[in-house]
Amino acid sequence: MNKKKATPSPVNEAEYGEILRQAISQIRTARLSMAQQVNASIQSVYWNLGKLLSEKQLAEGYGSGVVKQLSVDLKSEFPDMGLSPRNLWDMKRFYERYYQADVKLRQAVAVLPWGHNLLLINKLNNESEIAFYTNEVLTKGWSRDLLLNAIKMDSYGQAQKQTKTHNFDQTLPTVHADYANEVFKSTYNLGFLGITEPLKELELENRLIAKIRSFILELGRGFSFIGNQYRLEYNGKEYFVDMLFFHRGLRSLVAIELKIGSFKAEYVGKMNLYLSLLDRLEKSANENPSIGIILCADKDHLDVEIALQDINKPIGVAEYQLLLPKAELQTLVLNELKATD
Fold first, then answer.
1. Are residues 170 and 277 in the same domain?
2. CA distances from 139 to 108, 126, 136, 184, 215 (A)
3. Residues 306, 180: one domain?
4. Which residue has the higher pLDDT, 241 or 325?
5. pTM more than 0.70
6. 172 and 41 in a common domain
7. Residues 89-126: pLDDT tens digits?
């Protein structure tokens, strides 16, 4: 007697969404890993050449003839490697800049593209600053142009001034909380939207959806967009999350609520409810607790602190900037003018 083959059960929309998220995550992780392996191999060669030139105590001036001849001979052997005299001197500078640096910093710059490394050693001297920007490039996938703009805007200095406004340390396991601290910022620059006049919250949301790639880049590496006005139904009632993401590193759903005005304490209660619903209805067994971010035009950290005091869900409050602040814009323009004198 022939047995009937079991008919595969149809995959519902939520299950498919999870399959798609995991597939995208696998591909992106593999691509990033391959790119970093390539960069590390190139930097290893450049590091060793720089070390050779440094140990031979060659200096620009009396050593120029040696380096020029070395460049000619190396290029004839390896024509596709960019071994010009200028590049060889840069390799020497690269080695001398980092050979006594912290091991973690050396490991981080080793996987950056060469152009990013040249920018860092040309623009910065402070190791803490270099470590900050290196981490930003690696976690957010910044291009060289974005790195240059961040340095000119003194993103490092701004980050040191920011007060963390979240309860991650109280609501998440230590390792998970530390990672969340690194992932989420206190301020997000939405200048890419080109907004010059007041908007309604839904219009701001629609603008972000239209430029979702730019928004994800501003959020940082690891975010996958799931949807906007994401519908949750419970006990015969409907609830809608402004924007829902998944962060593959944190293994958490991330709900973002957009607010046009200043922070209000009642926003926390609403977000707490959304996170409870997400954990109950959407979170998979192998995922970490959902995280909420309230993105508003302005916040007072004392107001945020008291509003989060007895909340047991991980929630952060962040500001957004629609335009570059006037003072920063003036400084940026003046520096550009000085650079072209």
1. yes
2. 11, 20, 5, 11, 15
3. yes
4. 241
5. no
6. no
7. 888 899 999 989 888 888 888 888 889 999 999 999 89
Counting the structural domains of the chain, the total is: 2
253, 282 contact by CB (below 8 A)? yes
91, with CB counted inside 10 A (0-12, 13-18, 19+), is buried
Sort strands 291-298 and 315-321 into parallel, antiparallel or unpaired.
Answer: parallel
When the pLDDT of each residue in the chain is averaged and rounded to a whole number, the result is 78
Q: Which residues constitute the domain of residue 263? A: 162-326
For a pLDDT cut of 70, what percent of the chain falls above it?
74
